[in-house]
Amino acid sequence: xxxxxxxxxxxxxxxxxxxxxxxxxxxxxxxxxxxxxxxxxxxxxxxxxxxxxxxxxxxxxxxxxxxxxxxxxxxxxxxxxxxxxxxxxxxxxxxxxxxxxxxxxxxxxxxxxxxxxxxxxxxxxxxxxxx
Length: 131
Description:
Blueprint: E1 6-11, E2 15-19, E3 22-27, E4 30-35, E5 41-44, E6 54-63, E7 67-76, E8 79-87, E9 102-104, E10 110-113, E11 116-118
Antiparallel strand pairs: 1-4, 2-3, 2-10, 4-5, 5-9, 6-7, 7-8, 8-9, 10-11
């Protein structure tokens, strides 16, 4: 796609993902993916994620710029966030830095960067988005 650009870089800031007051992921070693027209996405090493709160779902998507993604739902107590996280287990060439890492929708889970709560972006994946 003409004009489409992706850059991937390490992000040393403390990035946290919180749902219903529970920290789901916390790391100073995420990989930040910047993609044209989308909010920055932080990819976490699974060792920095409460994977015990994730359940695989049958959802899969394909991106021509990253590859095929698998999804997980998140459960914190009675709160369930469907397809809250995704991963590219076998990304396309050039996207190896995000391979096997987990990324959480900032539209569906609170992201905190260096102690500062980030407002949720408005995208096609926002809970209020109309399809």
